[in-house]
Amino acid sequence: MPILFPPPLQAGQRVAIVAPARKVPPADLAGALETLAGWGLEVVLGASIGAESHQFAGDDDLRRRDFQQQLDDPSIRAIFCARGGYGTARIVDGLDFERFAQSPKWVAGFSDVTVLNCHLLRRGFASLHSPVPVLFNQPGGEEALESLRRALFGVPDAGLGAPAHPLNRPGTATGALVGGNLSLLHTLTGTGSQAGFAGRILFLEDLDEYLYHIDRMLLHLHRSGQLAGLAGLVVGHFSQMHDNAVPFGHTALEIINNYARLYDFPVGYGFAVGHEADNRALVVGRNVTLTVDASGSRLRY
Protein backbone atom coordinates (compact mmCIF):
# COMPACT_ATOMS: atom_id res chain seq x y z
CA MET A 1 0.00 0.00 0.00
CA PRO A 2 1.44 3.42 -0.95
CA ILE A 3 1.81 5.86 1.95
CA LEU A 4 0.23 9.32 1.61
CA PHE A 5 2.12 12.23 3.14
CA PRO A 6 0.39 15.46 4.16
CA PRO A 7 1.73 18.61 2.49
CA PRO A 8 4.24 20.69 4.46
CA LEU A 9 2.83 23.41 6.68
CA GLN A 10 3.06 27.04 5.66
CA ALA A 11 3.09 30.17 7.81
CA GLY A 12 -0.39 31.53 8.38
CA GLN A 13 -2.11 28.15 8.46
CA ARG A 14 -4.34 26.92 11.29
CA VAL A 15 -3.44 23.98 13.52
CA ALA A 16 -5.27 22.39 16.44
CA ILE A 17 -4.22 21.07 19.84
CA VAL A 18 -6.46 18.36 21.29
CA ALA A 19 -6.23 15.89 24.18
CA PRO A 20 -7.27 12.39 23.12
CA ALA A 21 -6.07 10.85 26.38
CA ARG A 22 -5.14 12.40 29.75
CA LYS A 23 -6.52 15.76 30.86
CA VAL A 24 -4.58 18.94 30.14
CA PRO A 25 -5.05 22.30 31.90
CA PRO A 26 -4.88 25.15 29.35
CA ALA A 27 -2.10 26.79 31.38
CA ASP A 28 0.17 23.84 30.58
CA LEU A 29 0.06 24.83 26.90
CA ALA A 30 1.24 28.42 27.28
CA GLY A 31 4.77 27.64 26.08
CA ALA A 32 3.52 25.60 23.13
CA LEU A 33 1.16 28.37 22.04
CA GLU A 34 4.06 30.81 22.04
CA THR A 35 6.26 28.41 20.09
CA LEU A 36 3.66 27.65 17.44
CA ALA A 37 2.82 31.33 17.04
CA GLY A 38 6.55 31.93 16.56
CA TRP A 39 6.43 29.42 13.71
CA GLY A 40 3.73 31.59 12.10
CA LEU A 41 0.84 29.24 12.89
CA GLU A 42 -2.64 30.07 14.16
CA VAL A 43 -3.56 27.69 16.98
CA VAL A 44 -7.05 26.42 17.80
CA LEU A 45 -7.62 24.68 21.14
CA GLY A 46 -10.05 21.78 20.98
CA ALA A 47 -12.93 21.26 23.38
CA SER A 48 -10.97 18.54 25.16
CA ILE A 49 -8.39 21.04 26.41
CA GLY A 50 -9.35 21.88 29.97
CA ALA A 51 -12.09 19.24 30.03
CA GLU A 52 -11.97 16.67 32.82
CA SER A 53 -13.44 13.24 33.53
CA HIS A 54 -11.32 11.62 36.22
CA GLN A 55 -7.93 11.07 34.50
CA PHE A 56 -9.27 11.79 31.03
CA ALA A 57 -9.65 15.05 29.09
CA GLY A 58 -13.41 14.72 29.18
CA ASP A 59 -15.36 11.53 28.59
CA ASP A 60 -14.73 9.29 25.59
CA ASP A 61 -17.47 10.89 23.52
CA LEU A 62 -16.18 14.43 24.06
CA ARG A 63 -12.61 13.46 23.17
CA ARG A 64 -13.78 11.56 20.09
CA ARG A 65 -16.01 14.42 18.87
CA ASP A 66 -13.22 16.93 19.40
CA PHE A 67 -10.71 14.86 17.43
CA GLN A 68 -13.26 14.21 14.69
CA GLN A 69 -13.97 17.92 14.36
CA GLN A 70 -10.29 18.64 13.73
CA LEU A 71 -10.01 15.75 11.26
CA ASP A 72 -12.98 17.06 9.29
CA ASP A 73 -12.13 20.78 9.31
CA PRO A 74 -10.25 21.48 6.05
CA SER A 75 -8.76 24.68 7.48
CA ILE A 76 -6.90 22.73 10.18
CA ARG A 77 -3.62 21.57 8.62
CA ALA A 78 -2.11 19.72 11.59
CA ILE A 79 -3.39 18.15 14.80
CA PHE A 80 -1.11 18.14 17.84
CA CYS A 81 -1.99 15.73 20.65
CA ALA A 82 -1.35 17.77 23.77
CA ARG A 83 0.02 14.87 25.82
CA GLY A 84 -0.06 11.11 26.21
CA GLY A 85 -1.15 9.16 29.24
CA TYR A 86 -3.91 6.72 28.46
CA GLY A 87 -7.17 6.91 26.53
CA THR A 88 -6.56 7.21 22.77
CA ALA A 89 -7.37 3.55 22.13
CA ARG A 90 -10.77 4.10 23.76
CA ILE A 91 -11.84 6.53 21.01
CA VAL A 92 -9.94 5.48 17.87
CA ASP A 93 -12.55 2.99 16.59
CA GLY A 94 -15.16 5.75 16.57
CA LEU A 95 -13.14 8.06 14.32
CA ASP A 96 -14.07 8.48 10.65
CA PHE A 97 -11.17 9.25 8.32
CA GLU A 98 -13.21 9.73 5.12
CA ARG A 99 -12.81 13.52 4.97
CA PHE A 100 -9.25 13.29 6.27
CA ALA A 101 -8.39 10.97 3.36
CA GLN A 102 -9.50 13.65 0.90
CA SER A 103 -7.02 16.11 2.36
CA PRO A 104 -4.53 14.47 4.76
CA LYS A 105 -3.00 16.57 7.53
CA TRP A 106 -0.24 15.94 10.03
CA VAL A 107 -1.14 14.20 13.27
CA ALA A 108 1.67 14.56 15.80
CA GLY A 109 2.51 13.12 19.22
CA PHE A 110 4.08 10.14 20.95
CA SER A 111 3.56 7.71 23.84
CA ASP A 112 -0.20 6.98 23.90
CA VAL A 113 -0.37 8.65 20.47
CA THR A 114 1.34 5.51 19.11
CA VAL A 115 -2.26 4.31 18.71
CA LEU A 116 -2.91 7.01 16.10
CA ASN A 117 0.51 6.61 14.45
CA CYS A 118 -0.23 2.92 13.84
CA HIS A 119 -3.93 3.36 13.06
CA LEU A 120 -3.08 5.88 10.34
CA LEU A 121 -0.20 3.85 8.92
CA ARG A 122 -2.43 0.79 8.59
CA ARG A 123 -4.72 2.98 6.43
CA GLY A 124 -1.87 4.32 4.32
CA PHE A 125 -1.18 7.69 5.98
CA ALA A 126 2.05 9.07 7.40
CA SER A 127 2.14 10.84 10.76
CA LEU A 128 4.67 12.18 13.25
CA HIS A 129 6.05 10.49 16.35
CA SER A 130 7.22 13.66 18.04
CA PRO A 131 7.27 15.87 21.16
CA VAL A 132 3.86 16.78 22.56
CA PRO A 133 2.89 20.40 23.33
CA VAL A 134 3.03 20.06 27.13
CA LEU A 135 6.73 19.16 26.72
CA PHE A 136 7.70 21.65 24.02
CA ASN A 137 9.87 23.87 26.19
CA GLN A 138 11.59 21.52 28.61
CA PRO A 139 15.35 22.01 29.04
CA GLY A 140 17.33 19.74 26.77
CA GLY A 141 14.53 19.45 24.24
CA GLU A 142 15.62 22.19 21.89
CA GLU A 143 16.92 19.91 19.12
CA ALA A 144 13.87 17.67 19.40
CA LEU A 145 11.57 20.66 18.96
CA GLU A 146 13.57 21.86 15.98
CA SER A 147 13.31 18.39 14.41
CA LEU A 148 9.52 18.65 14.74
CA ARG A 149 9.49 22.06 13.06
CA ARG A 150 11.58 20.76 10.17
CA ALA A 151 9.33 17.72 9.72
CA LEU A 152 6.17 19.81 9.72
CA PHE A 153 7.44 22.46 7.31
CA GLY A 154 9.21 20.06 4.95
CA VAL A 155 12.71 21.31 5.69
CA PRO A 156 15.30 18.76 4.46
CA ASP A 157 16.70 16.64 7.29
CA ALA A 158 19.78 14.42 7.14
CA GLY A 159 18.26 11.99 9.65
CA LEU A 160 19.24 10.85 13.11
CA GLY A 161 22.35 9.22 14.51
CA ALA A 162 23.35 7.36 17.67
CA PRO A 163 26.79 6.57 19.09
CA ALA A 164 28.33 3.11 19.06
CA HIS A 165 26.72 0.71 21.53
CA PRO A 166 27.97 -2.69 22.68
CA LEU A 167 24.65 -4.36 21.81
CA ASN A 168 24.50 -3.00 18.26
CA ARG A 169 24.29 -5.50 15.40
CA PRO A 170 25.99 -4.18 12.24
CA GLY A 171 24.25 -4.07 8.91
CA THR A 172 22.24 -1.91 6.52
CA ALA A 173 18.51 -2.02 5.89
CA THR A 174 15.93 0.11 4.12
CA GLY A 175 12.22 0.28 4.88
CA ALA A 176 9.39 2.44 6.11
CA LEU A 177 9.45 3.55 9.74
CA VAL A 178 6.89 1.97 12.08
CA GLY A 179 6.72 1.79 15.85
CA GLY A 180 6.58 3.87 18.98
CA ASN A 181 5.76 2.93 22.54
CA LEU A 182 6.29 -0.80 23.16
CA SER A 183 3.36 -1.06 25.58
CA LEU A 184 1.00 0.39 22.99
CA LEU A 185 2.36 -1.73 20.14
CA HIS A 186 1.69 -4.77 22.33
CA THR A 187 -1.82 -3.52 23.14
CA LEU A 188 -2.66 -2.98 19.44
CA THR A 189 -1.87 -6.58 18.47
CA GLY A 190 -4.91 -8.18 16.84
CA THR A 191 -6.87 -4.92 16.60
CA GLY A 192 -7.84 -2.70 13.67
CA SER A 193 -5.00 -0.37 14.62
CA GLN A 194 -2.18 -2.91 14.35
CA ALA A 195 0.36 -1.81 11.74
CA GLY A 196 2.39 -4.49 9.99
CA PHE A 197 6.11 -4.64 10.74
CA ALA A 198 7.22 -6.85 7.84
CA GLY A 199 9.83 -5.21 5.63
CA ARG A 200 9.91 -2.12 7.83
CA ILE A 201 12.26 -0.44 10.30
CA LEU A 202 10.72 -0.81 13.77
CA PHE A 203 11.55 1.73 16.48
CA LEU A 204 10.79 1.15 20.16
CA GLU A 205 10.68 3.20 23.37
CA ASP A 206 8.94 2.95 26.75
CA LEU A 207 8.59 4.47 30.20
CA ASP A 208 7.81 3.41 33.76
CA GLU A 209 7.55 -0.34 33.17
CA TYR A 210 8.72 -3.33 35.16
CA LEU A 211 11.52 -5.23 33.47
CA TYR A 212 9.50 -8.44 33.37
CA HIS A 213 6.75 -6.49 31.57
CA ILE A 214 9.28 -5.54 28.89
CA ASP A 215 10.21 -9.20 28.52
CA ARG A 216 6.58 -10.31 28.40
CA MET A 217 5.69 -7.80 25.69
CA LEU A 218 8.69 -8.64 23.53
CA LEU A 219 8.04 -12.34 23.99
CA HIS A 220 4.52 -11.74 22.67
CA LEU A 221 5.82 -9.85 19.62
CA HIS A 222 8.26 -12.71 19.02
CA ARG A 223 5.75 -15.54 19.49
CA SER A 224 3.12 -13.81 17.35
CA GLY A 225 5.61 -13.55 14.48
CA GLN A 226 5.75 -9.77 14.41
CA LEU A 227 9.54 -9.58 14.69
CA ALA A 228 10.28 -12.21 12.07
CA GLY A 229 10.02 -10.01 8.98
CA LEU A 230 11.66 -6.84 10.26
CA ALA A 231 14.13 -5.06 8.02
CA GLY A 232 15.80 -3.44 11.03
CA LEU A 233 15.32 -2.35 14.65
CA VAL A 234 15.92 1.06 16.24
CA VAL A 235 15.96 1.24 20.04
CA GLY A 236 15.23 4.54 21.77
CA HIS A 237 14.84 5.55 25.42
CA PHE A 238 13.68 3.00 27.96
CA SER A 239 13.26 5.33 30.90
CA GLN A 240 12.50 4.87 34.60
CA MET A 241 12.39 1.09 34.47
CA HIS A 242 11.43 -0.84 37.62
CA ASP A 243 12.53 -4.16 39.05
CA ASN A 244 11.13 -6.54 41.65
CA ALA A 245 12.62 -7.44 45.04
CA VAL A 246 13.99 -10.52 43.31
CA PRO A 247 15.80 -8.96 40.32
CA PHE A 248 14.79 -9.92 36.80
CA GLY A 249 18.46 -10.20 35.91
CA HIS A 250 18.62 -8.14 32.72
CA THR A 251 18.30 -4.46 31.86
CA ALA A 252 15.64 -3.33 29.39
CA LEU A 253 18.20 -3.11 26.58
CA GLU A 254 19.56 -6.55 27.40
CA ILE A 255 16.02 -7.93 27.26
CA ILE A 256 15.54 -6.40 23.80
CA ASN A 257 18.83 -7.93 22.72
CA ASN A 258 17.73 -11.35 23.98
CA TYR A 259 14.97 -11.33 21.34
CA ALA A 260 16.72 -9.33 18.61
CA ARG A 261 19.60 -11.81 18.49
CA LEU A 262 17.16 -14.52 17.42
CA TYR A 263 17.01 -12.73 14.05
CA ASP A 264 19.57 -11.36 11.60
CA PHE A 265 18.40 -7.78 10.97
CA PRO A 266 20.59 -4.78 11.95
CA VAL A 267 19.90 -3.27 15.37
CA GLY A 268 20.88 0.18 16.62
CA TYR A 269 20.61 1.23 20.25
CA GLY A 270 20.72 4.63 21.91
CA PHE A 271 18.58 6.74 19.57
CA ALA A 272 17.10 9.99 20.92
CA VAL A 273 13.49 8.82 20.74
CA GLY A 274 11.09 8.43 23.64
CA HIS A 275 10.37 9.72 27.13
CA GLU A 276 13.38 11.98 27.55
CA ALA A 277 13.79 15.67 26.77
CA ASP A 278 15.68 14.84 23.58
CA ASN A 279 12.87 13.08 21.69
CA ARG A 280 13.51 13.62 17.98
CA ALA A 281 10.63 13.68 15.53
CA LEU A 282 10.28 10.65 13.25
CA VAL A 283 7.98 10.45 10.23
CA VAL A 284 6.04 7.21 10.65
CA GLY A 285 5.65 5.65 7.19
CA ARG A 286 8.66 7.38 5.65
CA ASN A 287 11.31 5.24 3.95
CA VAL A 288 14.65 5.35 5.75
CA THR A 289 17.98 3.57 5.58
CA LEU A 290 19.37 2.21 8.84
CA THR A 291 23.14 1.77 8.89
CA VAL A 292 24.86 0.21 11.90
CA ASP A 293 28.66 -0.10 11.94
CA ALA A 294 31.62 0.35 14.27
CA SER A 295 31.10 4.13 14.39
CA GLY A 296 27.48 3.91 15.55
CA SER A 297 24.00 3.93 13.99
CA ARG A 298 22.35 6.27 11.50
CA LEU A 299 18.87 6.71 10.14
CA ARG A 300 18.90 8.52 6.81
CA TYR A 301 15.87 9.71 4.88
UniProtKB/TrEMBL annotation:
Any one Gene Ontology molecular-function term assigned to this protein's record: carboxypeptidase activity
Keyword vocabulary terms for this entry: Carboxypeptidase, Hydrolase, Protease, Serine protease
Top-level taxon of the source organism: Bacteria
Positions annotated as active site in the UniProt record: 111, 205, 275
One Pfam family hit: Peptidase_S66C
Every LD-carboxypeptidase N-terminal domain range: 15-129
Domain LD-carboxypeptidase C-terminal residues, every copy: 174-290
BP-aspect Gene Ontology terms: proteolysis
Similarity comment text for this entry: Belongs to the peptidase S66 family.
Protein name: LD-carboxypeptidase
